[in-house]
Write a structure and sequence with these properties.
This protein has helices spanning 3-34, 40-68, 71-79, 84-93, 104-132, and strands at 96-97, 100-101. The chain has 133 residues and is mostly helical.
Length: 133
C-alpha cells in the first residue's frame, strides 16, 4: 500500500469514527429527550423519593397530633415566623414517630398540618364567639 492509499484510508477511518461517535450521541439524545429513557439508578432514586413522600404524607397527621399535645412547643411555634424556624421547632419537639426520624420533608408537611389545625381552631373560636353575641 502506497502513501496515498494509506492517507486515504486514514481519512475514511477518521470520518467513519466521527460518524459513529456523532450517531451515538444523537441516539442518546433521542433516547433521553424524546423516548424518555432514564437509567435504572435514576428510576430507583425516583421511586425511593416517591415512597418517602407518601410515607411522610401519612405520618404528618400523627406528627401534628404529637406536636399539638406539647404546649411549650406549640407556644414557640405560634410565636415563630413563617418558614424554617417552625420546621426546626417541629423537628426538636417531635424527633421521631415510631421508628421514623422526623426529617426536614416530614417536618415541613407536619408544619402545614399544624398550621391548618390552628387556622381551623381559630375560625371555630370566632364562629362560637359570634353565635354567643
Amino acid at each position: 500500500m502506497d502513501y496515498q492509499q494509506r492517507e486515504a484510508l486514514k481519512q475514511k477511518v477518521k470520518i467513519g469514527g466521527i460518524g459513529v461517535v456523532a450517531g451515538g450521541v444523537a441516539w442518546w439524545i433521542v433516547l433521553v429527550s424524546i423516548l424518555g429513557w432514564v437509567s435504572p439508578t435514576t428510576v430507583q432514586q425516583q421511586t425511593s423519593n416517591a415512597v418517602q413522600t407518601k410515607v411522610d404524607q401519612v405520618l404528618a397527621p400523627f406528627c401534628a397530633d404529637r406536636f399539638m399535645a406539647n404546649k411549650d412547643a406549640l407556644a414557640k411555634f405560634t410565636k415563630a415566623g413563617e418558614g424554617y424556624d417552625r420546621n426546626d421547632i417541629v423537628q426538636n419537639a417531635v424527633p421521631k414517630i415510631g421508628p421514623t426520624e422526623v426529617d426536614y420533608q416530614l417536618a415541613a408537611l407536619c408544619t402545614v398540618a399544624i398550621e391548618a389545625r390552628l387556622k381551623n381552631a381559630s375560625q371555630n373560636v370566632l364562629q362560637d364567639t359570634s353565635k354567643k353575641l
